[in-house]
């Protein structure tokens, strides 16, 4: 295999670009055609790749076919295959042909739209697509640019949370005497909320002792309700603390629980707290009218986020963040160095500079891929896609309910099913241990990948349906695999009734 001579290096030569891009597309075509042949979860030992690759970068460049050969030989065996149709772990990380095309356009154009002037069309397209998405999921007019709000595309919910916490912090501090008031600010979330809220609170300077984890219970489906928050807030106020920020979640990480947005919104308004609604997972389903009740009370929110890269066919990474008051966000995040002030005569009121809506200055052209997905599949196609996964998960839940060996821990939310082996009596530790063994056996088989959660000291297996390549046959195979591994750990067949899709 020949190397690339330094004097011949033309990094963006159109002919080379076309030829090598075709090689990559052909490689990925083969990967997707064969992805079911790979164990879903890699079982390689730590350090494998470091032992295989050279200890330093090559002196001279190498041809693309040699690089792709090493990807196939060294990289692919060490991957957990998120796009496998048998991937049911965590939450989906969707990819699609349209998402890939949008990503190629974004990467190929390679603009950096941190200000309007840095790429006017990229900035304006972002404003258009976040408004489109806001209308699809049913957000009120106040979150649209036309209604005085607006949206931005971040890389993840983690970024969105830090930015909204900073905005809430500065808004609250403007009412207090001096920056030392930060020591009095309190953040509230449930025991089911994503851990990023605790991390985000630390990043913006909230003392860890001022983060309140409010317990939930099976009575509310592990959703957060207003009563528990109100009690905690009243206790903090009595201690001289200041309620700052409240998180409501639509589709929690562990169980898919849905918090009572209206109840929490009324509490937030009563105590002048910032209400953020985290719909990272569940937000995609809200394009379907049958799930709109999950956003009941959304008019109380100050900010809302959801991740199209989870369940909306948009390749990583892409997180929509909407705010009712862009000024609250930009006043906490804006910076205006001189080298960015001399490129346009447009007034600040006429354009959006997205550098002031995020932590970083640089940013990719994420709007392109979301726009291509929306254009390519449309609202009707996306609703059918979401509903197909919900139907598959419903079928899986019905099989569990019809088998006396299993217990559905909480009723299915969206396309997430949570289950465990049914204890034979109260305090049956054997059932917990066997549930762990069943999950380990499923994942060790390479035929599927699921993850677990702990709630009320119960070990829970999570089956998250949502892969772009997942069909009903894969869900049926997963059910057969669960039954097979359950028998292998010593629990015989125990079906009481059967359901059909």
From TrEMBL:
What protein is this chain from? Tyrosine/DOPA decarboxylase 3
The PTM N6-(pyridoxal phosphate)lysine maps to: 310
Extract the GO molecular function terms from the UniProt entry.
carboxy-lyase activity; pyridoxal phosphate binding
Q: Which organism was this protein described from?
A: Aegilops tauschii subsp. strangulata
The record's Gene3D superfamilies line, in alphabetical order, gives:
Aspartate Aminotransferase, domain 1, dopa decarboxylase, N-terminal domain, Type I PLP-dependent aspartate aminotransferase-like (Major domain)
Keywords noted in UniProt: Decarboxylase, Lyase, Pyridoxal phosphate
| Example GO BP | carboxylic acid metabolic process
Cofactor(s) the protein requires to work: pyridoxal 5'-phosphate
Gene Ontology cellular component annotations, sorted alphabetically: cytoplasm
Xref: Pfam families: Pyridoxal_deC
């Amino acid at each position: 295999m020949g190397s690339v001579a330094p004097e011949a290096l033309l990094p963006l030569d159109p002919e080379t670009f076309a030829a090598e891009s075709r090689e990559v597309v052909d490689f990925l075509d083969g990967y997707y055609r064969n992805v079911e042949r790979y164990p879903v979860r890699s079982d390689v030992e730590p350090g494998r790749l470091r032992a295989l690759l050279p200890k330093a970068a090559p002196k001279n460049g190498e041809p693309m076919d040699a690089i792709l050969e090493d990807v196939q030989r060294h990289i692919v065996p060490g991957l957990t295959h998120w796009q496998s149709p048998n991937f049911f772990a965590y939450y989906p990380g969707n990819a699609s042909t349209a998402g890939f095309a949008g990503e190629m356009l974004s990467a190929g154009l390679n603009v950096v739209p941190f200000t309007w002037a840095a790429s006017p069309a990229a900035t304006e397209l972002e404003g258009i697509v976040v408004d489109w998405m806001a209308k699809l999921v049913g957000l009120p007019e106040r979150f649209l640019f036309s209604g005085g709000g607006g949206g931005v595309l971040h890389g993840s919910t983690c970024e969105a949370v830090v930015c909204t916490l900073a905005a809430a912090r500065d808004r609250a501090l403007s009412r207090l005497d001096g920056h030392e008031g930060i020591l009095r600010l309190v953040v509230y979330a449930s025991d089911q909320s994503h851990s990023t809220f605790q991390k985000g609170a630390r990043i913006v300077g909230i003392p860890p002792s001022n983060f309140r984890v409010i317990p939930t219970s099976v009575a509310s489906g592990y959703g957060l309700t207003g009563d528990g928050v109100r009690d905690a807030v009243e206790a903090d106020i009595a201690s001289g603390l200041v309620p700052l920020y409240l998180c409501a979640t639509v589709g929690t990480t562990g169980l898919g629980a849905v918090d009572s947005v209206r109840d929490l919104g009324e509490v937030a308004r009563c105590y002048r707290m910032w209400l953020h609604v985290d719909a990272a997972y569940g937000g995609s389903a809200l394009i379907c009218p049958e799930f709109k009740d999950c956003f009941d009370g959304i008019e109380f929110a100050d900010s809302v986020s959801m991740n199209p890269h989870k369940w909306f066919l948009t390749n990583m990474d892409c997180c929509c963040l909407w705010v009712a008051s862009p000024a609250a966000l930009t006043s906490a995040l804006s910076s205006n160095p001189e080298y960015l002030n001399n490129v346009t005569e447009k007034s600040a009121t006429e354009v959006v500079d997205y550098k002031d809506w995020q932590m970083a200055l640089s940013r990719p052209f994420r709007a392109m891929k979301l726009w291509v997905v929306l254009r390519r599949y449309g609202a009707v196609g996306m609703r059918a896609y979401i509903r197909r996964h919900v139907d598959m998960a419903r079928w899986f839940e019905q099989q569990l309910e019809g088998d006396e060996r299993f217990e559905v821990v909480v009723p299915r939310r969206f396309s997430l099913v949570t289950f465990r082996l049914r204890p034979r009596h109260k305090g049956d530790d054997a059932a917990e241990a066997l549930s762990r063994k069943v999950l380990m056996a499923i994942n060790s088989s390479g035929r599927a990948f699921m993850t677990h959660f702990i709630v009320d000291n119960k070990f829970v297996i999570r089956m998250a349906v949502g892969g772009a390549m997942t069909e009903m046959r894969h869900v049926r195979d997963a059910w057969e695999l669960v039954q097979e591994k359950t028998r292998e750990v010593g629990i015989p067949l125990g079906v009481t009734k059967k359901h059909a899709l």
